[in-house]
Amino acid sequence: MSGDPLSKVPRTGLAGLKENWQDDLLSGFLVFLIALPLCLGISMASGFPPSAGIITAIIGGILVSRINGSYLTISGPAAGLIVVVLDAVQSLGEGDAMAGYRYTLAAIVFASALQVLMGLLKAGRLSSLFPASVVHGMLAAIGIIIMAKQIHVVLGVTPEKGSLFSTIAQVPHSFLNLNPEIAIIGLFGLVILIIWSMLKNRTLKMIPAPIIVVLVGMGLARYFDLEHEHMYLFLPDAHFLPHHEATVGPKFLVAISENFMSSFYFPDFSKSFTIEFWEAVIAISLVGSLESLLSAVAIDKLDPYKRHSNLDRDLTAVGAGNLAAGLIGGLPMIAEIVRSSANVNNGAKTGWANFFHGVFLLLFVVLFPRLIHSIPLASLAALLVFTGFRLASPKEFAKVMGVGKEQLFMFVVTIIGVLATDLLIGVAIGIVTKFVIHMLRGVRLNNLFKIHFVIERPNADSILVDIIGAAIFSNFMALKNALAHLEKGKTVIFQLNNAYMLDHTVMEFIHDFQHDYEAQGGKCEFLGLEYHDTYSRHPLAVRRMRRDNMSRRKSDHYGLS
To answer: Is 7 exposed, middle or buried (0-12, 13-18, 19+ CB in 10 A)?
Structure first.
């Protein structure tokens, strides 16, 4: 952008609609093409009816886009919530899927009330208290769980019921006993997604891969006549293999009512006083809020106009959307990263793109419900397996390892903790591990939750921020709040020769602060970093003061007067 970028920032509200409706309408349509199959797949993987995900995305688009605090995020169901919602359905339903669904709707209503309350109490900033490696470990564990469960659907096989590790152990058995027609549809979808992720052509990339997977799947389903139950004899003339029989039919297609109004279900609050119910409430509220806030922050970094979301307002809006969804049969929603990134790349300007994506979804389910019924489950499962892989890919491990070995250790501990127990306990194990590592590295008990810093103004143009002791993920909130209120356009000098420990979360925060402050005409300088050793070559790695400098005292303000 040339000239003053602030003069070109798109307007909001009705003025923004009038000014940018063409860009937002196009982006909203392209996002709708991505959202439709993902909403169906996420909903069924969560133990909800297929229509539940679409209900949520419609509310996220039409309602939440009008009241949220962000500009380019797309609100809807997300893969990251599959695990907590499915756990709630299974634990509350005790074998009765419909009862579990309605009990979980009640849990969503309570969780959404908590989210609204957190937003009103301005708790959006609390997302910073979760160490990045622990959050990424949680998401990677979710990715592994999604892959473990959905690969069986891709292959057309139903595994025997059991623990998560039992489901993983049955993957080789499912490959050996795959349903050939269903596996062709599912594996074809995976191949398309892999090829599309490697494409460099911008024009082709504009066509959403999920819709291609669904269209190809629908074509193959028609070719294999999945509308009618029949037996398929695999390689009947091959004598070196036993005859492998496979049954195919409508059960491998999405089951959805032709009357969208019949898709609404109401919550059952009769389990509101059980421990399992409140475990579900806390898990849905915590994971949903955390993911939503992280997505909003990530999309802000992609926004070409450098706008900043109001995280507290965003959390309140998502909570209000979840309240509406929970009352009529929908999944919980978040600000979803994949659809939001596509929204930015498609040239969206305002929140009206989110609104239009919701309108397109509503029109589609009202006008073309039979088309949804012809989508194979294997195609949707392929989308989820690919999503799960991206959450837990080797690149994620390498990225965390690049920051430092202790980050990788916390990342892996969190993954194992989530897989072996559940999401909340796994995250707690990861956070406790981080505390233990900090204490082993010399962080004092009185520094674990309390930070010491001084802000001075040595002259009209400079602000000195002197950090004393340890600045770590669990104590830097006061510093974050203080820096948020600094005057713009000054030179902010971080004096760090009195800080004996700066962890990765704080280094990342300072880096982001510098980027944002300088983008608004200010300047940042760092003094005293030369007295610290780092635990890896990553620029934002943990920094610890060298022992020979531990006794160093601040003697002056480095020439400032």
So the answer is: exposed
Going by C-alpha positions, the residue among 137, 193, 151, 185 that lies closest to residue 338 is 193
In which element (H, E) is residue 482 found? helix 477-484
**How does 370-399 read in b/e, with b if 16+ C-beta sit within 10 Å?**
eebbbbbbbbbbbbbbbbbbbbbeeebbeb
Residue 136's contacts (CB-CB under 8 Å, 6 or more residues apart) are 396, 399, 400, 411
Residues 345, 259: Cα–Cα separation, whole Å: 34
Residue type, 532: H
To 5 degrees, how large is the angle CA 154–CA 197–CA 24?
105
- List the chain domain ranges: 11-389, 445-549
Residue 468: φ, ψ to 5°? -120, 130
Which residues share a beta bridge with 335? 75
Tokens representing 505?
A: 């979360």
Please state, in angstroms and rounded to a whole number, the distance separating the CA atoms of residues 415 and 413: 5
Angle at 66 between CA 64 and CA 68, to 5 degrees: 60
pTM of the model: 0.87
Query: What 3 state SS string does 332-343 have?
Result: CCEEEHHHHHHH
Top-level CATH class of 445-549? alpha beta
Q: Which two structure tokens, joined as six digits, stand for 119?
A: 């937003």
Contact between 93 and 360 under an 8 Å Cβ cutoff? The reply is no
pLDDT score for 550: 59
Could you give the CA distance from residue 486 to residue 500 in angstroms, rounded to a whole number?
A: 24
Q: Are 105 and 385 in contact (CB under 8 A)?
A: no
Residue 298 CA to residue 344 CA, distance in Å, equals 11
Tens digits of residue pLDDT in 56-115: 999 999 999 999 999 999 999 999 899 999 999 999 999 899 999 999 999 999 999 999
Closest of 322, 326, 329, 330 to residue 288, by C-alpha: 322
Residue 365 burial (CB count, 10 A): 23
Contact 351, 70 (CB under 8 A): yes
**Quick one: CA dihedral 333, 339, 341, 345, positive or negative?**
negative
pLDDT tens digits, one per residue of 457-503: 999 999 999 999 999 999 999 999 999 899 999 999 999 999 999 99
3-state secondary structure of 493: strand
Is 59:48 a contact under the CB 8 Å cutoff? Answer: no
Residues 6+ apart with CB under 8 A from 71: 12, 303, 305, 307, 309, 350, 351
Nearest to 309 by CA among 110, 22, 75, 24: 75
Does residue 404 sit in helix, strand or coil?
A: coil
The span from the CA of 60 to the CA of 208, in Å, is 20
Residue burial 457-494, b: 16+ Cβ < 10 Å; e: rest: eeeeebbbbbbbbbbbbbbbeebeeebeebeeebebbb
Beta bridge partners of 466: 454, 495
Whether residue 106 contacts residue 277, with contact meaning beta carbons closer than 8 Å, is answered with yes
Q: Which residues contact 285 (CB under 8 A, 6 or more apart)?
A: 110, 111, 112, 114, 115, 118
